[in-house]
Amino acid sequence: EVQLQASGGGLVQAGGSLRLSCVASGFTFDDYAIGWFRQAPGKEREGVSCIRSFRNRTIYADSVKGRFTMSSDIAKNTVFLQMNSLNPEDTAVYFCAVDLITPFCRMRAPDVYKMDHWGQGTQVTVSS
Asked: DSSP string of 70-91?
């Protein structure tokens, strides 16, 4: 029932920008945590940015703070990730995920894998 469709990835040079979009369906934006996560080959999945409905908080990984901005358009059931000043270390598959049962932003392994629902992911490749 819950579906997340991520898009907007691509190939960009270092210093460039991309904007990812995630269209969500199958749940209401009431009590939730929704965010962006990434996984590079051979590395653990990690949280990038996440919005919690509780207190309407947005959090970011230290590695992206100041460069990435997450936003939402509730009317369109869509969240975005504006990524600026990209560097090759940002290369990964980026996933949109939502936690609904106990809505936490599960940013680090092993808890990160326990987000309730995942989108298919979109590839972001940053060349040097």
From this structure: EEEEGGGTEEEEEE-S--GGG-
Report residue 121 as tokens.
């992911």
| Dist CA 79 CA 36 (whole Å) | 9
Amino acid at 98: V
> Nearest to residue 93, comparing CAs of 43, 40, 15?
40
55 φ, ψ (degrees, to nearest 5)? 65, 5
Amino acid at the residue 39? Q
Within 8 A by CB and 6+ apart from 81, the residues are 19, 20, 22, 36, 48, 49, 68, 69, 70, 94
Give the three-state DSSP class for 62: coil
Per-residue pLDDT in tens (0 to 9) along the chain, 128 residues: 899 999 999 999 999 999 999 999 998 888 999 999 999 999 999 999 999 999 989 999 999 999 999 999 988 999 999 999 999 999 999 999 999 999 999 999 999 999 999 999 999 999 99
State the residue for tokens 């600026």.
Answer: 84
